[in-house]
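Q: I have 106 residues here and want to know how they pack in 3D. Can you give me a structure?
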Amino acid sequence: MERAKKRIHYLFMVLISLVLVSACSSTAEMVDAPAEAVCTAIIDAKCVRCHYKTRICDALGTKSFSKWKKSIKFMVKQGAELTEDEQNKVIACLISLPEGSNVVCK
């Protein structure tokens, strides 16, 4: 009986490890489809008024949350019309996108 418990415990640990490894090593984009659509809509409507998406694309994966927040706040001071909610959504989106993401790089 003790051996069966150990085997179940071992299999459970292997399963958890596999789930964690697959979640951490996924090359898929980290934002889900609805969030991606919101992000794309805001960027297309508000950000590309002043600059190309390539500028945003080049910064993906290079900025921390605080740096993205600072950049967005600076853009608002420069005249970007983003509500606080839109700012938060764009920051969350940009921090979660991998380099070369289709959301802003295509």
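Q: Anything worth noting?
A: Residues 2-24 form the longest helix (23 residues). Residues 38 and 89 are 8 Å apart (CA to CA).
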